[in-house]
Amino acid sequence: MVAWEMRFRAARVSLPDWAEDAPDRALFVSNATGTYELYAWDRATGEQRQVTDRPNGTTDGVLSPDGEWIWWFDDTDGDEFGIWRRQPFGGRTSGSVDEPAAPGLAPSYPAGLALGRDGRTAVVGRSTDEEGTTLHLVRTGEDPVEIYRHRESAGVGDLSHDGSLLAIEHTEHGDAMHSSLRVLRPDGTAVAELDDTEGGTVELGLEVLGFAPVDGDTRLLIGHQRQGRWEPLVWDVATGEQTDLALELPGDVAAEWYPDGSALLVSHSFEARSELFRYDFAGRALTELSTPPGTVSGATARPDGSVEYLWSSAAEPPAVRSTTGRAVLDPPGMRAPASVPVEDVWVEGPGGRVHALVQKPAGASGPLPTVFDIHGGPTWHDSDAFAAAPAAWVDHGYAVVRINYRGSTGYGREWTDALKHRVGLIELEDISAVREWAVSSGLADPERLVLTGGSWGGYLTLLGLGVQPELWTVGIAAVPVADYVTAYHDEMEALKAMDRTLLGGTPEEVPERFEASSPLTYVDAVKVPVYISAGVNDPRCPIRQIENYVDRLAVRGAVHEVYRYDAGHGSLVVDERIKQVRLELEFAARHVGGAR
User: Fold this and answer.
1) What is the band of 468 on the pLDDT scale with cuts at 50, 70, 90?
2) What's the number of CA atoms in the CB half-sphere (13 Å) around residue 304?
């Protein structure tokens, strides 16, 4: 088996989630069977048990605080539309099936979930095109009770430790990029409100990080953007008092409570890398926790005060580690081969310095065939973390350049919010600036340049091929937005809200903006071979709008290939993912060629 395939087949696990009142009971995701599924883990005995088994995999699951139940989301082949089911932690009885966890609630897109410590209470968030967002209080043996409804997007944040308060995020003001907060009682009556305004409008985001894990404690940990980046503060929802932690870290900061409520586990993300700290309320002391250079993808504080975290770097595969130095969870099966480290590059762009991460084959010198691998989101970022697909390109002799364009997170609020109204075009300006550097520096061969990405990265790929037709040799787009107007009408409601925020309205209200930002507008200018992969059940980048784009390519005989697969916005099946990467590599080899 070749190295690049081994990276996909290698055993992977997520950071285990554990039950608040039964910390030896845990839940994690693994690809042990060749499909990503949920697994229960009894840490006291070491026993592990597969919980779900579906053809297209399962990753959305929650363990109840008492450790008795595993909730998991049951959709149809990746369409993200379905219901929550639940299974006893010890497993179902022979011949039985997992029961609906919230009987009486019709299928929907999920909009958050919070489970109460009493073992019988939950708050279930739902989203549909017809209803907008609804939140329901669900108690075992009782009919669900609607406690919130609004046309704009919203989501469940957290239940207080004693179940008397519920924090939600909402965008009733119409800005889907910047949520406001509301605290409700279980009957739906409002207790407290918080929004952050600048210039009289809601422009700064807020997020729920969690209630203090102590009965009767009304402190809510939240994230805010008042200093131009994400930072935590403690909001006492009973008194209204807000305590800014004044951590003075340069990047985005998130936090969660230690189990006794005396301290916070702080995660700091800055310039594509991350680190962990402990913040003690007594003395307001911030202490760094030792982690290797790279990226911490998730972390949790255990009752004994130790911290478990999922770590990787571009060169080193992911592993679940502990500050105690003990192994946490070592999955069976092969370990992924290492790859090469990233190099940091900063390029002057029209909106400021653009950060790019560069990988190239060991010992190789340019100019090289180069892949510009564009991340999705757009509110996301590439980091110094292990990724099998870029490593596969490197194995085949390509340099790989990943770009944190305007719209990316981790570089301040202004950088993230900069793409509004000129959606797609802003990002392409930054991508073009990095391309110019890559060619002028001697890294990239200008005749062998691949523009590629998935989701928003796939959108930017198709847009770039039309707007910048002279800059690229080939385009490879996975699950892209291709026809923005049709995509808007067919996509899930939460994404409609995001598009209205990004573009300033609907296609009927601002048609010129949708036209300027749609790859379909520029499809006749595309000069290079195009490869597109699409999930036929994708609710985020639906298939019909991709077919519209492909039809336009076909009418004029443009060189293109399309691969359609029976899943949603990506695949959780390892063999399917390997097949997709192989098809991409083979397409590039035919039209670009590998290293000379």
Assistant:
1) very high
2) 8
The percentage of the chain sitting over the pLDDT mark of 90, rounded to a whole number, equals 91
CB atoms within 10 A of CB 216: 10
For residue 193, what are the CA distances in angstroms to 189, 228, 359? 11, 22, 46
Lookup: tokens for 529: 């071979």
Note the maximum CA span of the chain: 70
Q: How far is CA 23 from CA 276, 394, 488, in A?
A: 22, 41, 43
Cβ atoms of 123 and 113 within 8 Å: the answer is: yes
| 481-485-488-491 Cα dihedral, nearest 10 degrees | -60
**Residue range 524-547, pLDDT digits in tens:** 999 999 999 999 999 999 999 999
pTM of the model: 0.96
SS3 482: coil
Report d(CA 213, CA 262) in Å as an integer.
10
Mean pLDDT (the chain) is 95
What one-character-per-residue DSSP string does 82-121 give? BEEEEEETT-PPTT--PEESSTTPPPBEEEEEEE-TTSSE
Q: Are strands 109-115 and 121-128 parallel, antiparallel or unpaired?
A: antiparallel
Residue 388, C-beta contacts closer than 8 angstroms, at least 6 positions apart: 4, 7, 8, 336, 581
Question: Peptide bond preceding 55: is omega within 30 degrees of 0, i.e. cis?
Answer: no
Q: Are 340 and 361 in contact (CB under 8 A)?
A: yes
